[in-house]
Amino acid sequence: MLFRSSAALCGALIALAVSVNVARSETRGGHANAVVDAASGEAVVGAASTYNPFKPGKEEGGPKTASGERYDPSDWAAAIKTTLRRKFGGVLFGARPKFALVEAVGKKVIVKINDVGPLRPGRIIDFNERTMRHFDPSLERGVIKDVKVSPLAGDNWTLGPVG
């Protein structure tokens, strides 16, 4: 009797887990479409690189970003080219970060734009380490070409990969 009850309970838990995973995947798919639909303004296409002001020998600014947040290599964040600051909602000191949909090498990710920079010629965005590892897991490329960056309206976005 105890065995039958345990087996029934186990079966019910497995069914619940499967239904939750199906619901999550359906939500992610819908989220991906909502993100593409919410992209406000024209996308910018160019090259991307990575930065970390804590690494020795780096030329980038200090540990504070343009929004006033501390640089966090484990966040989903990026610095946009200074001349694109207005297109991405300002990115001002003390203001809430802005958000963007970034597409490259067949992947999409939502990042917060919390910093700006002069960047190197030809580059439109600098990713923090986590974001760059999403597109280049080994960090061997250094620069990713043909990155599409679309500003997102609003500030209620879940950061990270998009389905």
Automatic annotation (TrEMBL):
Entry-linked CDD domains: DPBB_RlpA-like
Comp. bias (Basic and acidic residues): 56-71
Short name of any one Pfam family annotated for the protein: DPBB_1
Span of the signal peptide: 1-17
UniProt entry tagged with the keyword Lipoprotein: yes
RlpA-like protein double-psi beta-barrel domain segment(s): 45-145
Ranges where the record places region Disordered: 51-71
Keywords: Lipoprotein, Signal
Record keyword Cytoplasm present: no
Name assigned to this protein: Rare lipoprotein A
Source organism of this protein record: Bradyrhizobium huanghuaihaiense
Origin organism lineage: Bacteria, Pseudomonadati, Pseudomonadota, Alphaproteobacteria, Hyphomicrobiales
